Amino acid sequence: MEQQRNLLFILLLCAAMFLFWDWNSDKANALKEAENAAVASLNQEINDKSDISNTVTIKSDNLELTVNLKGGDVIDAKLLKIKQYQDKDDPFHLLMTNNKFLYQAQSGLAGKDGIDNQFRPEFTAAQNEFLLKDGENTVVANLVYEKDGVTYTKKYSINKDSYVVNVSYDIQNNSEKDLNLCFYGQLKQTCDDSYLKNDTGFGMVASAYRGTAYSTDDTRYEKATLDDINDDLKLNVATKNGWVAMIQHYFVSSWIGSGDDIGNVIYSSPAEKNTAAIIGIRTNNISIKAGENKTIGSKLWLGPKEQDALSQVAKNLDLTVDYGWLWFISIPLFKILNFIHGIVNNWGFAIILLTLVVRGVMFPLTKAQYTSMAKMRLLQPKLMEIKEKFKDDRQKIGAETMKLYKAEKVNPLGGCLPLLIQMPIFIALYWTLMESTELRQSSFILWITDLSVKDPYFVLPILYGVSMFLLQKMSPTPITDPIQRKVFMAMPFIFTFMFCTFPAGLTLYWLISNCFTIFQQVIIFRSLEKRGLSMKKA
């Protein structure tokens, strides 16, 4: 019954690992509050209400932003080089504001003399559109607001071929009093994502994380769901450096801390009558003396989860490519995948070659597994004799069984331990493929035009089911119970149905893995037969 036990072990191990991952990713983010005087000095409530009035457009080669002149918030952002749908030319819609869904990148000045404390300022702009011109590397938009002898110039700057938006306030204090204020940048999003799934085509897979994340001096990467914040999770964490982000499948928006000696505070709060969530980062208070000019601001990332680019923008920002608790395995796997793609220039073929590399590396473990299973099969007659001889003495059966294992140099767990080692690698590879934004809208061959969505004709899932059926036939199991046998034989059909909803890239990986396993088994079984260790039924 060794094969039966291994099957049960695999199923239980898979269930346990995925349950652990789910618990680890969704656990409550109860955090310590910083006991810092700087936090206490920044207790003023930031007014996040921003009615849309006049707007200006800022357009680079990568981004098209719509900025509300009331407050100067980014209320709409399109990624011009990334399509919303593969068969249409519409750019991907990351930030948006309508009567059904809100997702904005807000910023302003708070603190004692902040202009955003009670009402949002009405900025003016020299023109309605700011476009990146031919031959230029940067597009700059200046929004101006004057109050009580102080001129506030809110500056948006975007470089060519970049998803980073530089947001700053140039404050010219021509008044007779000193100013005390701070800069804040926050992300605000509706908690209910039904609009995204039905209308905007975010293309999120059910298991992909959607929510907030942040990083501090003490914590590299922490997550908090929108519902957690909506349920009154109020972050209040002091940090010198850090960032806040809102994450979805393949894309991320993030405010990065000032990175200077001012210091920052990460905060969160519910909004829009508890239908939306806010996560933000603000500087500690700074003083601007009368007659003094000062500039404060931050960086805003609006774009795909490109690991190399994210790592250059801020420390640990690349961790928003969320590989889960097996990230230390997934990261090297992605580097190998990316290297292979650089050679073959096709993500589908890169997945195939990566699968072959992983399966090849684990061949010794696979061979050890089947060798152990074969030895256990040969011992079945002797084990039955022991059970029959000492059927009334369970303790004696156990002792004689272990004595037999020792004499024959057989490890009863030899078939399970290789699986235990291999399983984390397979799960890590799963999340590598799931989280790689490079696979989005990447074609393979023929009908597979997007590896990030399901096979439109279900060819890959069907082929996977066939391969799984062949594997079952090659490794016959001594299951005698008719119900268990029916369940076992139905597994290829069950998995085929499941894989019909999987992204084509993941299905391709499992198909190639099964095909290579069949090839490996042929080699291993022939080797075992030469040694007198047959895996076939007697």
Mind explaining what this structure looks like?
- The strands form 2 sheets. Strands 1, 2, 3, 4, 5, 7, 11, 14, 17, 18 and 19 form an 11-stranded mixed β-sheet that branches.
- The protein is built from 14 helices and 20 strands.
- It has 2 domains: 2-19 and 332-530, no CATH class; 31-322, Beta-galactosidase, Chain A, domain 5.
- It has helices at residues 2-26, 37-40, 194-200, 226-230, 307-313, 327-344, 347-361, 363-378, 380-389, 394-408, 417-435, 459-474, 482-499, 504-530; strands at residues 55-59, 63-68, 74-83, 91-97, 102-110, 124-125, 129-131, 138-147, 150-159, 164-173, 179-190, 211-215, 222-224, 236-239, 243-248, 251-256, 264-271, 276-283, 286-288, 293-304.
- The longest helix is centred in the last third of the chain and has 27 residues, at 504-530.
In a few lines, what is going on in this structure?
This protein has helices at 2-26, 37-40, 194-200, 226-230, 307-313, 327-344, 347-361, 363-378, 380-389, 394-408, 417-435, 459-474, 482-499, 504-530, and strands at 55-59, 63-68, 74-83, 91-97, 102-110, 124-125, 129-131, 138-147, 150-159, 164-173, 179-190, 211-215, 222-224, 236-239, 243-248, 251-256, 264-271, 276-283, 286-288, 293-304.
